[in-house]
User: What shape does this take?
Amino acid sequence: MTSKWKILKLAKGYQGRNNCIRVARQQVERALQHAYKDRRLKKRDNRSTWIQRINAGAREYGVSVCQQLQRCLLTCASKKTS
Assistant: This one.
């Protein structure tokens, strides 16, 4: 069980009242759950944006994504060897 003061530090705005530790604990628990979930949603959104940008760049040159990645890998490999 976490300390009462840790809970109240996380739940700003609940510090003035005496009987609100239960409400503050519930709010902190809910906020932490949403933060956990939204970190994963942020990664998902960034991944889809990244894929859209790669596809747009490939379409600009009239090649497929696989062909573009192969060209990138070949140029990176040639730079490492030289």
Notes: Helices lie at 4-10, 21-60, 65-81. The chain has one domain: 4-81. The chain has a mean pLDDT of 85. The chain has three helices and no strands.
